[in-house]
Design goal:
Layout (H helix, E strand, L loop, with lengths): L1 E5 L8 H14 L6 E6 L2 H12 L7 E5 L19 E7 L1 H12 L3 H16 L7 H17 L4
Parallel strand pairs: 1-2, 2-4
Antiparallel strand pairs: 3-4
Helix pairs in contact: 1-4, 1-5, 4-5
Length: 152
Amino acid sequence: MILIKNKQRKISIDIKKIEIAATRMLAAINYQEFDLGILFCSDSLMQKYNRDFRQKDKPTDILSFPYHQNLKAGKRIKVVTEEDKNLGDIIIAPSYVQKNVKTLWNQTLEQRLPILIAHGIAHLIGYDHGTEDEYKKMLTVEKKLLKIIKTL
């Protein structure tokens, strides 16, 4: 199940469109039976999460919190109990994204949000971008996920 909460009021979010995109992305990687949490929050709450969990006292666009923290990129999650059917949580600060979306990516917020969802999901299944090689592998997964939702 995909659980989406919108705890910010500044930016209008099409929650249904995000849910459809996330559902299709999970199906594309055969994780449709897994839980995924998505939280849209204010910049100030994002800054708190970033400070508390990454020791960076500033807001950011997205944070991912994988349920399976030691999952290696490209490896399948091994389900032993029903509780294992959890990918984790993605937190996005739409206001932060809105401030930077045009100058950094030459996109609209509506175009950027699915990219962030794909990025978050890639993190939840073990991908990272700490090195150039890791970045390339993660980008391949993100492109696969985004290809699935081109028609939305």
